[in-house]
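Task card 7
Instruction: Convert sequence to structure tokens.
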Amino acid sequence: MNNCELADSVKSSLDQYFKDLDGESPHALYDMVLGCIEKPLLEYIMQHATGNQSKAAEILGLNRNTLRKKLQQYNIE
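Output:
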């Protein structure tokens, strides 16, 4: 398996998150991590695609309607 810098960053961030919890129970971790990764990804790709949702959807491998829902979810124009 190839070493993935992004995966390493996520693991490092999770290590810090659990240290910061200091024994407290985590809650809704999956949604938190997705939100932290998905929004900047969508913002970056929309900028790269110069606002063209069809092009952005193709780059992401998403259906355009799915992309539109995600953009609305994160209030990205």
